[in-house]
Design goal:
Length: 316
């Protein structure tokens, strides 16, 4: 059995009348890239802040590395790397000196620290920016600096709170690759995001949150098996009559057929050859067919079926 790195049991956090976390329990094992996926306001940052004892809470127990977490548990904190949602670096220090400062909080040996700082710089790809001040960095590069500051001391547990929000695609890829690399190097990772594709791409296990509650948990494969959707077919087709739409909706394994903006969307549950049957109906009626897609379920479909609403994906 792998060791448990984080254990959260029955966590309740209230902000006045608002229950931000409602009996949340999580167990994260060594070596996982654990994803906390949920829309804005679902309680991800509150969870992280409680976990780190940066925020007091109303009920519940938190253990990290098998020990009770508290604001003064410095022995636990030194083995944690934190990358907060809001970038926190020193404006008056260069890229190199920022990383050196944060690394120096934990690593006192100068030679070792130099090596660690250089490794962190290479790791986020900031080699050409060592002497730059944060002001001169683009948003994506600033995020990468923020990450380097959090991981330079080689912590055993790395927590990243939405590290890719409003980041250009190149930096985003760099960040995601970096997280996988840290994990391969032995770190356990907690990753929060409202981007389902990212969570799917890098997380070994995922907890889906909504309104302060965990609504589902598992690997992406397990989560997708929890829902009835197995395939969504989308077909561009003009002038589809209600009668034909109805015919499609009555095909075996089809539980939803919608027609909007010249696109027919057909959701299926199980069965084989669903696409062929749908196309068959359209061809029988001599309709001109444009682009055709068949999509496997996404975590968005999981969120949609469980909560009744869409997990907004690309809003920024
Ligand atoms: P997420 O990180 O998933 O976007 P948060 O943990 O930031 O969610 O917020 C969870 C809920 O708690 C939201 O409804 C948010 O408005 C509320 N909230 C967060 N911080 C505070 C605070 N300091 N005071 C009052 N309400 C807060
Ligand atoms: Mg947040």
């Amino acid at each position: 059995m792998e060791n448990t790195v984080v254990k959260i049991d029955g966590l309740v956090k209230r902000y006045k009348d608002l229950t931000a976390l409602d009996h949340l329990s999580l167990e994260i094992k060594e070596g996982e890239v654990f994803g906390l996926l949920g829309p804005n306001g679902s309680g991800k940052t509150t969870t992280i802040n409680c976990l780190l004892s940066l925020l007091s809470f109303d009920k519940g127990e938190i253990e990290i590395f098998g020990k009770k977490m508290s604001p003064t548990a410095y022995d636990i904190k030194r083995d944690i790397g934190i990358i907060m949602q809001n970038v926190a670096v020193f404006e008056e220090l260069t890229v190199y000196d920022n990383i050196d400062y944060f690394c120096g909080l934990y690593i006192t040996d100068k030679e070792k620290r130099k090596q660690y700082v250089e490794e962190a710089i290479a790791f986020v790809g900031l080699e050409d920016f060592k002497k730059f001040y944060p002001k001169k960095l683009s948003g994506g590069l600033l995020r990468r600096l923020n990450i380097a500051c959090g991981v330079a001391h080689k912590p055993k547990l790395i927590i990243l709170d939405e590290p890719t929000v409003a980041v250009d695609p190149q930096s985003r890829n760099k960040i995601l690759e970096g997280i996988e690399q840290l994990n391969q190097g032995g770190a356990t990772v907690i990753y929060t995001s409202h981007y389902m594709e990212e969570v799917e791409q890098i997380c070994t296990r995922i907890a889906i949150m909504d309104k302060g509650k965990k609504v589902a948990e598992g690997t992406k494969e397990e989560l997708k098996k929890m829902i009835k959707n197995t395939e969504t077919i989308k077909i561009e087709v003009r002038e589809l009559t209600e009668e034909i739409r109805k015919k499609v909706s009555e095909l075996p394994h089809v539980y939803l057929a919608e027609y909007k903006d010249s696109q027919l969307t057909v959701a299926c549950s199980g069965g084989k050859h669903n696409l062929i049957r749908v196309l068959g109906v359209l061809q029988e009626n001599e309709l001109h067919i444009g682009r055709v897609y068949s999509e496997l379920p996404t975590l968005n479909d999981v969120f949609l079926e469980i909560t009744g609403k869409a997990l907004r994906d690309k809003e920024d």
